[in-house]
Design a protein that fits this description.
Blueprint: H1 26-29, E1 32-36, H2 54-59, H3 62-77, H4 81-99, E2 103-107, H5 117-128, H6 133-139, H7 142-148, E3 163-166, E4 180-185, E5 188-191, H8 192-196, E6 204-206, E7 220-222, H9 243-252
Parallel strand pairs: 1-2
Antiparallel strand pairs: 3-4, 4-5, 6-7
Helix pairs in contact: 5-6
Length: 257
């Protein structure tokens, strides 16, 4: 039986923690869990690198930047003792499940949480409170592919060759996972600057000592996007009302078990 903790009463990022015994059946029950560490935002108190990353300020719309700024301000100006304790307890349960043989995938509930950077804050929280960097990285790579049953998250013949190339070594410093310099996707090698190039507009913002890749340049960078892409036909109906999705959901919620 494969179970995922999805309800507000059980997933660790929605409340302070999950049921105390939830990691225990992992080795024998084929248990999978998405570690949704919402309170990893408490780490913004000391770590604002991603919040001010030029990739974020380029791609986030202004309302999303304002929401992120509010999250950072809250972390820096309010007592975070309870949030830190909750986060430590959440990661403790994740660690118990990982080392007990369960399948844990990194999940953030984006866009409820801040897009993209919340994944990295989750990984940093895992390492800060007890997982190794390798254990954390696996939750965002091969474990995700295994849970989805797709050839994702590993470098192997016949698997999707989607790669992130980073400066540094995330196995020794988990923060290096965010230092992406280029990617390989669909057989194409693209730098961060190439990926950001389409998201340009007439308004420029000069940030001293920074560039789209996070390195010193002092050059102005554009912060507006081009016209939106056409609506995809699949958007005509909400995916969660699709008959195939509904049928699959019956299996996910243990109806047949």
């Amino acid at each position: 039986m494969r179970c995922t903790e999805r309800s507000p009463t059980s997933r660790p990022g929605w409340v302070s923690t999950s049921w105390p015994d939830s990691p225990r059946p992992a080795p024998t029950a084929d248990l999978a869990r998405a570690a949704t560490l919402f309170v990893s935002s408490t780490l913004y108190r000391d770590d604002t690198y991603l919040a001010t990353d030029p990739r974020v300020t380029r791609l986030y719309p202004l309302w999303r930047q304002a929401a992120l700024t509010s999250t950072v301000t809250t972390a820096q100006t309010t007592d975070q003792t309870v949030q830190r304790d909750n986060l430590a307890n959440q990661v403790r349960q994740v660690k118990e499940m990982v080392r007990g043989g369960g399948l844990v995938t990194s999940g953030t509930d984006s866009p409820i949480d801040h897009l993209a950077i919340s994944t990295h804050m989750n990984l940093r929280a895992m390492v800060l409170y007890g997982l190794t960097a390798q254990e954390a990285l696996v939750t965002a790579t091969s474990n995700s592919g295994a849970f989805l049953g797709e050839k994702l998250g590993r470098i192997a013949p016949g698997w999707f060759a989607d790669l992130s190339i980073v400066d540094g070594n995330p196995l020794t410093n988990i923060e290096d996972a965010a230092n992406v310099s280029s990617v390989v996707t669909s057989g194409r090698h693209l730098t961060v600057d190439q990926l950001l190039a389409p998201y340009a507009g007439p308004t420029e913002t000069t940030v001293a000592g920074s560039s789209t890749s996070g390195r010193s340049s002092g050059q102005p960078r554009r912060n507006r996007v081009l016209a939106p892409v056409p609506t995809h036909p699949s958007a005509k109906a909400f995916w969660w009302n699709d008959a195939e999705v509904l049928e699959s959901a019956k299996e996910s919620c243990c109806q047949t078990h």
